[in-house]
Amino acid sequence: IYQCDWSSDVCSSDLRSAARTSMWDIDVAGSTFSTIVSDMRRAMRQMSPSTVDVEWSPATHSDLLPLSSLVVTDVDLLHEALRDPTVPGLVNALRVVRDMPFAGTSYLWADLDGSTTRIVIAVMKAVWLLLDMASESGDASVAGEAIAAGLRVMPGDPELLARQKSLITTCRHERH
After folding, report:
1. Residue 15 pairs with which residues in a beta bridge?
2. Residue 175: predicted pLDDT
3. Contacts by 125-131 with C-beta closer than 8 Å and gap 24+?
4. 10 falls in which pLDDT band (50, 70, 90)?
5. Pick from 18, 25, 3: which is nearest to 64 by CA?
6. Which of 35, 122, 164, 170 would you call most buried, defined as having the most Cβ atoms within 10 angstroms of its Cβ?
7. pLDDT, tens digit (0-9, with 9 covering 90-100), for 47-60
């Protein structure tokens, strides 16, 4: 779950109730959820043995389910690239865009809480920003990468397809 009110320090991703809702459509026993969280902590320690001293998700006695700042999602990388936009930063952030957010899953919460829409908007903001930067510098390969990323989250977008067609035509003319 990735829904933050950037004016506060708590995101919905930091709440046990949000995590439970995203994993199950039905109410599950507290012990089941605790076992899953414990397994998650163990798996995170095993994935990164060099960080033995890191508290990946500290235990709490409230609805909070905090994660270490070392846990970074592709959406975090995208937001960081948008905060201080550079061509390499935006290109790297868009390279991890493979498809529509949550494609191939049956997560209802992602659409219901607006997560899918927010992520698509962020991707498209990065795409159009990178296209503007590529246009200023005349870098066709960067423009191509931006268009490709945009089409992965919005296949058939008429504006992106028009840009792609124009880019292909321009590149053909430059080769001849």
Report:
1. 64
2. 64
3. 125/82, 126/78, 126/81, 126/82, 126/85, 126/90, 126/93, 126/94, 127/94, 127/160, 129/82, 129/85, 129/90, 130/87, 130/90, 130/91, 130/94, 131/163
4. very low
5. 18
6. 122
7. 877 777 778 887 77
